[in-house]
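User: Hi! Is it possible to get a structure for several chains at once, not just one? Here's what I have:
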Amino acid sequence: MDPAAAKYIGAGLATLGMIGAGVGVGVIFSGFLQGATRNPSAAGGQFTNLILGAALTEALGILAFVLGLLILFS
Amino acid sequence: MADPMHQFEIHKIVDLPDFTLPGVGTIDMAFTNSTLAMTIAAALIVLFMAAVTSKPQVVPGRLQVIGEGVFSYIDNLAVGIIGHEGRSFFPFVFTLFLFVLVMNFLGLFLVFTATSQLAVTATFAAITIGLVLVVGFARNGIGFFKLFVPSGVPWYMLILVTPIEVISFLLRPVTLALRLFGNMLGGHVAMKVFAGFVVSLGALAAGGGLGFLGIPGAALALGGVVALTALEFLVAFLQAFVFAVLACVYLNDVVNLGHHH
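Assistant: Yes, the chains can be modeled jointly so their relative placement is included. Here is the combined structure:
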């Protein structure tokens, strides 16, 4: 295979790691909404935890993105 | 069409003489567009806070309400996560939050985002983790290593848990730097790519013939750019907030080591 083509395919495959991060962030927000609709008065106090969980999950997706960039530009 | 990565290029504005640090090597001291963006951000923060606190009144005016709102927001955050000792770390968290926030917002108004440079975000992460290490060893001494041995875990589980804790601690500065960098870089590249669609589809329509079909596509891409810009404003705030929250959480780990408040 042409090395340049293999590089682009590899970069594309590396970004597939974002699937997991997408599912994870979705699970976090669905869990938050379920809890918030059952007990709306407690929802406001959990905003920081919500953002924290989303950020920690998203970091793994960003790792995949950076890996894709590394393959593409190195 | 312009390359979407072109906006992240560093170029020198004022070339200053190189500085040689013994044992490290030669350091390029040039005043770059990254330095300029950071200088503007720092100047804006200082000017804003000076304007807010210049004429403090018991009944605050509009400007003072904004300043006090930002101040008490981060104060509540630090005290809420770290506890009553959070107030001694408030200046650090507040500086970090405001600086990252203003640099993120400036990136949406100017052509250059300082926080889309890995060197800048890695420096912030290194400062944060450096402070965590200094505070951890100063307060707990050698007991700092209890961070890797969670209490209430059976000894046979510790064989598995301790390496995981060590690796997760070592990954903290990496993820802290990469999260901000990746979000800013990814958002700005996406915006530039969508803006490029408008130009190329418009050129297709200008070519005549069946090219007029490009006009609705260009309009759709333009709407996408507007929506992405709105999303980027949310992300700019959220990433500064996340950085401040994570700095607080990491500090809390070493400040309240072994006892939960």
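The interface with chain A takes residues 77, 80-81, 175, 178-179, 181-183, 185-186, 238, 241-242, 245-246, 249 of chain B (CB under 8 Å). Strands of chain B lie at 12-14, 19-21, 25-27, 31-32.

User: Great, thank you!
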